[in-house]
Structure formats: structure tokens, C-alpha cells
Amino acid sequence: MHSDIRTFNQAQDDGDKEICEVLSSIIDKDLPEAESKIWHRHPVWFLDQNPIVGYSRLKAGMRLMFWSGADFEEKKLKPGTGKFKDASIIYTSVDEISERDLKRWLKKSKKIQWDYKNIYKTKGKLNRLK
């Protein structure tokens, strides 16, 4: 695990810290080829410099977001409200995390990707990579 992500996780309240540690552990294990770092103050994993998955603290709980998750066709992942292809789930307890679901979503995140890396070059237009 990237040391900055470990620091982020340790800075959370106890319940959120547990959620972060479980999420980062599973993500690191299932996306070993991914680069991870703190990006816009939150842990994010990248494949070929393209953001794939990350999490952040919201008032409602810890939000796990997949940048291309709207195309995963998963009922538990709620699509974002903007023009992007993101989808997320909010956890308020570590007991809510289904490792089985998370592993399936991570597998889909490798196969279904929109090009966020070049979004500035395409002036906000997303192109499908995979």
C-alpha cells in the first residue's frame, strides 16, 4: 500500500479507518498492476494513468467510486449525476462491504474503462477505452 494512502486511512475515525483498510487491502490485492496515490486529497488507483477506483469521506459515509462504474450494470452502484460515467456506493460500516461484490467490480473496472486521462485534451468529451 502506498504510504500516503496508509496515512489517509490512519487519519480517519475508527469506523471509517476500518472501512478504508478493508477497501485498500482488497483493491491492492485485486489490482496489483495499478498505481495508487493520493489524488485530489483522496486515495485513487490508476491503470495506465487512468483513474479506476477510489474512496473519499462524505457526510453520509465512506464513498467507494468507480470512474467507469455506470457501465458495470450493478444495482448496488449508483451512477453519478453528471456527464461522467462514474458510479459509487456509500459504506457506513465495515460490515456492509461485500468482498465478493468488490472483487467483481474490480474485475469489471479492468474491462470497462472510459478515458479520463485525456479528458482535458478532448475538451470534456469521454471516449471509451475498453
What does this structure look like?
- It is built from three helices and six strands; from the N terminus they run ααββββββα.
- The chain is of the alpha+beta class and 130 residues long.
- The chain has a single domain, classed as Aspartate Aminotransferase, domain 1 (Alpha-Beta Complex).
- The chain has a six-stranded antiparallel sheet with strand order 1-2-3-4-6-5, with helices on one face.
- A hairpin with a 2-residue loop joins β1 and β2.
- α1 runs antiparallel to α2 and α2 packs across α3.
- The longest helix has 17 residues.
- The chain starts with a helix and ends in a 19-residue tail after the last helix.
Shape: globular
Helical stretch count? Answer: 3
Distance between the termini: 26 Å
Backbone structural class: alpha+beta
Summarize the structure.
With 130 residues, the chain is of the alpha+beta class.
Secondary-structure map:
Elements: H1 3-10, H2 14-30, E1 35-39, E2 42-47, E3 50-58, E4 61-66, E5 78-79, E6 87-91, H3 99-111
Antiparallel strand pairs: 1-2, 2-3, 3-4, 4-6, 5-6
